[in-house]
Design goal:
Number of helices: 1
Strand order of the largest sheet: 3-6-5-4
Number of strands: 6
Radius of gyration: 17 Å
Structural class: mainly beta
Number of domains: 1
Length: 118
C-alpha cells in the first residue's frame, strides 16, 4: 500500500540523518534507533525497515467526535492518503498526508514517537 511508503518516510524523517562521524564537541550523543531490514519493495522502489522498538503515532483529530477517548480504548482504523497542493520552498508541490479513519473519528498522523524501554 502507498501508506506503507508514507510510514517509512515518516520513520526515516523521525530518525533523522545518520551522523558521518563523532562530532568531538560537548553535545550529548544522539540515541540510535534500531531497525530490522525487511527487504526491498520493487514496486515502490523503497527499502522496508521495521523499527525494533515500540512506535507510537502522534496524531491530531482531523474530523469527527471531539470527546476525549479513555486511555487503552482499542480503535480499528483504515489507513487513507490525502493529497493537497502546497508551496514548498517557493515551488508548487503536492503534499500527501496519512489519515487513520477510525469510524467516528479521522486522525491525521503528524509524527512518530519512539518509546524506549518499558
Amino acid at each position: 500500500m502507498k501508506a506503507d511508503a508514507v510510514i517509512l518516510g515518516l520513520i526515516l524523517l523521525a530518525a533523522g540523518p545518520a551522523p558521518a562521524g563523532s562530532s568531538g564537541g560537548d553535545a550529548p550523543a544522539a540515541e540510535k534507533v534500531v531497525f530490522v531490514f525487511r527487504g526491498v519493495d520493487q514496486k515502490r522502489g523503497v527499502a522496508v525497515l521495521r523499527p525494533a522498538i515500540a512506535v507510537d503515532l502522534g496524531v491530531q483529530l482531523d474530523s469527527g467526535e471531539t470527546k476525549v477517548l479513555p486511555a487503552g480504548e482499542v480503535l480499528r482504523c483504515e489507513e487513507k492518503l490525502r493529497s493537497r497542493k502546497a508551496m514548498v520552498d517557493g515551488e508548487a508541490a503536492e503534499v500527501t498526508e496519512l489519515l487513520l479513519d477510525c469510524g467516528k473519528r479521522v486522525f491525521a498522523v503528524k509524527g512518530l514517537i519512539f518509546v524506549r524501554g518499558s
